[in-house]
Amino acid sequence: MNISHIEHIGIAVKSIEESRKYYEDVLGLTCYSVEEVKDQKVKTAFFQVGDTKIELLESTSPEGPIGKFIEKKGEGMHHIAFAVPNTTEALEDVAEKGVQLVDKVSRAGAEGLNIGFLHPRSTHGVLTELCSK
User: Fold this and answer.
1) Which residues, in sequence order, are CB contacts of 27 under 8 Å at separation 6+?
2) Which among 53, 47, 44 is positioned nearest to 5, based on CA atoms?
3) With contact defined as beta carbons under 8 Å apart, do 35 and 56 qualify?
């Protein structure tokens, strides 16, 4: 597997509109995209910071993964995403190395990326996302 950079850091928030104020008014960042990913029951907002993005994640359903995360742990860092050339191949590679997968094959994510998650039980407690264009 060849990781080129940190693609983004995902942060679970109760409200993108409320959270944007901190990132824009305090940190001086600009939100360049807000998007709903219906099959994941999430709304996202992106901020570019150098080569890395910050992704705010707001649940559109209490039954969605972000809704459940916030219910259990509150707002905060949800995952770190690494850019790879091919998500499916990277998932196969880490599975061969004994890593437990959330996604056995890649699926569509925000910004048109192919994504796949590694289970935090296999990654020292950090939900890890692999993504490719």
Assistant:
1) none
2) 53
3) no
Q: Are 59 and 70 in contact (CB under 8 A)?
A: yes
Count of C-beta atoms within a 10 Å radius of residue 105: 11
C-alpha 4/C-alpha 131 separation (Å) is: 11
Of 13, 2, 16, 6, residue with least CA distance to 80: 6
Q: Where are the alpha helices (DSSP H) in the chain?
A: 16-21, 65-73, 87-96
- Assess whether pLDDT exceeds 90 at residue 131: yes
For the record, the structure tokens of 64 come out as: 């969605």
Pick left, alpha or beta for residue 124 (phi over 0 → left; psi -120 to 50 → alpha; otherwise beta).
Answer: left
- This prediction's pTM: 0.92
